Amino acid sequence: MTKFGEIISSSSPTLIDFFNEENSEKSLVHRVLRDVASALGDKAKVIKIDIAKNEKLVNALRIKGSPTFIIYKDSEMKWRQSGQQDANTLINLVEQFV
Q1: Rounded Cα–Cα distance for residues 18 and 84 (Å)
Q2: Which H or E element spans position 94?
Q3: What DSSP string describes 45-79?
Q4: What is the reported pTM?
Q5: Per-block average pLDDT, block size 10, for the chain (98 residues)?
Q6: Residue 14 near residue 72 (C-beta atoms within 8 A)
Q7: Which residues share a beta bridge with 79?
Q8: Are 57 and 7 in contact (CB under 8 A)?
Q9: What pLDDT is stored for residue 26 in this prediction?
């Protein structure tokens, strides 16, 4: 979890998608995240974390559903939501913390 601490400590917002590789809707979520990352550019980071490969972190954060999106800034959780989100919603949310 040391790397996770480094990821979330950024002074710019970090959007994290906790996803399940077996999720049948993964291609849609990945397209949405590409659009979000493209729109935000250097203003924020967009990161995907596979739930199955990071069980300790998932348990520590009590992630129950896939996808779960979390926005961090300066090591503080600013927003969290499980379920599908569209690109515009995520972009607008992240931009609140830029």
Answers
A1: 11
A2: helix 87-95
A3: EEEEEEGGG-HHHHHHHT--SSSEEEEEETTEEEE
A4: 0.90
A5: 85 94 66 94 94 94 93 97 94 96
A6: yes
A7: 71
A8: no
A9: 58
- Host H or E run for residue 82: strand 76-82
Q: Residue holding tokens 């800034």?
A: 73
What's the one-letter identity of residue 78? K
User: For tokens 């077996």, what's the residue?
Assistant: 22
What whole-number distance in Å separates Cα of residue 26 and Cα of residue 76? 27
Between CA 82 and CA 56 the distance in angstroms is 18
Of 47, 49, 41, 48, which is closest to residue 95 (Cα–Cα)?
41
Residue type at 79 in one-letter notation: W
Say if residues 58 and 82 touch (Cβ distance below 8 Å).
no
Kind of pairing between the strands at 68-73 and 45-50: unpaired
Residue-range domains of the chain with CATH: 2-6+24-95 (3.40.30.10)
